[in-house]
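User: quick one, sequence for these tokens?
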């Protein structure tokens, strides 16, 4: 038990340094044209990324004051400690534990002008199935939803529910943002499902695109 507690305490620091060292070896291309106008305007934005593609984002977009929804589990606590080392501000909650409170906190942060990162298939899946909370968050805040993905020419895949991706050192990586998607505030239930599928499709498309581009 003491060893487990010690590991939970040390893992975020070790992970942050390992991520920095890995990132320094990568050949990275950023495709950010779709979000540059939002950044220039200081517009709060909801970024969605599949759970398996998260690894590099805290390092690549550090110190931007982004908010991130992280589960209340023990693993979530370690992840929260890790991403805070890159300047992210975490909100605790998930679809299974404290989800409503987490969405309210994110909505409040977006209302104050902050961007938010949401993992729409986390924390337990199903893999690459977008949960409805993203649509609810976009509807009540009016913030655009932007799909994001990272692909690598060579990577390890974990034996986990999401097949978590870890780029191999010195691989070629591409990070890309898709077109912003707006959700009407007066949308009904049927319309919300249509938009949910639209966002899911857009996220799958940009994910497929980075994989193709990284392998060229």
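Assistant:
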């Amino acid at each position: 038990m003491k060893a487990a507690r010690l590991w939970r305490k040390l893992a975020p620091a070790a992970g942050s340094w390992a991520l920095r060292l890995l990132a320094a070896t990568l050949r990275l291309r950023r495709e950010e044209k779709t979000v540059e106008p939002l950044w220039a305007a200081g517009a709060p934005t909801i970024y969605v990324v599949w759970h398996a593609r998260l690894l590099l984002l805290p390092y690549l977009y550090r110190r931007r004051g982004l908010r991130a929804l992280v589960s209340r589990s023990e693993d979530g606590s370690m992840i929260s400690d890790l991403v805070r080392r890159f300047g992210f501000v975490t909100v605790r909650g998930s679809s299974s534990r404290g989800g409503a409170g987490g969405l309210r906190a994110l909505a409040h942060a977006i209302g104050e002008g902050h961007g938010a990162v949401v993992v729409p298939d986390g924390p337990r899946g199903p893999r690459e199935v977008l949960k409805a909370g993203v649509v609810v968050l976009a509807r009540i805040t009016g913030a655009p939803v932007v799909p994001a993905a990272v692909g690598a020419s060579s990577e390890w895949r974990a034996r986990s529910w999401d097949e978590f991706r870890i780029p191999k050192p010195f691989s070629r990586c591409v990070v890309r943002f898709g077109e912003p998607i707006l959700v009407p505030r007066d949308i009904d239930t049927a319309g919300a499902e249509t938009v949910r599928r639209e966002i899911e499709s857009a996220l799958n498309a940009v994910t497929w695109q980075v994989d193709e581009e990284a392998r060229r």
